[in-house]
TrEMBL record:
This is DNA-directed DNA polymerase. It comes from marine metagenome. GO terms for biological process: DNA-templated DNA replication; double-strand break repair. GO terms for molecular function: DNA binding; DNA-directed DNA polymerase activity. InterPro entries: DNA-dir_DNA_pol_A_CS (IPR019760), DNA-dir_DNA_pol_A_palm_dom (IPR001098), DNA/RNA_pol_sf (IPR043502), DNA_polymerase_A (IPR002298). It catalyses: DNA(n) + a 2'-deoxyribonucleoside 5'-triphosphate = DNA(n+1) + diphosphate. The lineage of its organism: unclassified sequences, metagenomes, ecological metagenomes. Pfam families: DNA_pol_A (PF00476). PANTHER family: DNA POLYMERASE I, DNA POLYMERASE NU. Belongs to the DNA polymerase type-A family.
Length: 239
């Protein structure tokens, strides 16, 4: 069947992101004291560690100072340039993967994008899609949410979203017999808030959004076999 997208809206977003990238690039060059290619890990490595003498928090397998995302996130807490590089990478990925690429994947005959869905590919048994992957459209940033707005319905029609309410966790509660989980579902509580309240020692009414997101990562991490290392990396905490 395929899905309709507003190519004009995506093209406009692509132009806006392009302007933002140029502004971030300008600010990064100012912080670095000169021009360099933000897309070049080697040049960034030289700027951060040779020129600016920033602390080396991680190394590559070859023993070179790392410019990986996790390292930059740690450096960004104290230095502006790594923060700008992270913003640049995030916007650059949105532009190259979505706002630039999706309009080009519209079928000229149907006027829609046609993805391929796979029922038996993932180890967890979850549905996946490819060419393009329409199950991974960003939602965490304002720019990412705008990309989702470009998915539209034909004239006179509407898009409807339907989903089981936390079905995996309900099955886990049933199979495990966990009293806390079963009580939370029986009382129609927000299960992620309930978990966050337990973890952070607070009332559900005082649980913050960041705490709920952490609890959600823990809840689903338990179901899908996430390791301690994987959870620590996702929550950006020490193992």
């Amino acid at each position: 069947v395929g899905v309709m997208v507003d190519a004009k809206q995506l093209n406009e977003q692509s132009q806006e992101i392009g302007l933002s990238l140029k502004q971030i690039e300008k600010e990064a060059h100012s912080e670095a004291g000169g021009a360099f290619n933000l897309d070049s890990p080697k040049q960034l490595q030289e700027i951060l560690y040779d020129n600016l003498k920033l602390p080396i928090l991680g190394k590559t397998p070859k023993g070179q100072p790392s410019t990986a995302e996790a390292v930059l996130q740690a450096l960004a807490e104290d230095y502006e340039l790594p923060n700008l590089v992270l913003k640049y990478r995030s916007l650059s990925k949105l532009k190259s993967t979505y706002t630039d690429k999706l309009p080009a994947q519209i079928n000229r005959t149907t006027g829609r994008i046609h993805t391929s869905y796979h029922q038996a590919i993932t180890a967890t048994g979850r549905l996946s899609s490819s060419k393009p992957n329409l199950q991974n459209i960003p939602i965490r940033t304002p720019q990412g949410r705008r990309i989702r707005q470009a998915f539209i319905a034909p004239p006179g029609k509407k898009l409807i979203a339907a989903d089981y309410s936390q079905i995996e966790l309900r099955i886990m509660a049933h199979l495990s017999g966990d009293k806390g989980l079963r009580r939370a579902f029986a009382e129609d509580q927000d299960i992620h808030k309930a978990t966050a309240a337990e973890i952070f020692g607070t009332k559900q009414t005082k649980v913050q959004d960041t705490q709920r997101r952490s609890a959600k990562a823990i809840n689903f991490g338990l179901i899908y076999g996430m390791s301690a290392f994987g959870l620590a990396r996702q929550l950006n905490i020490k193992r």
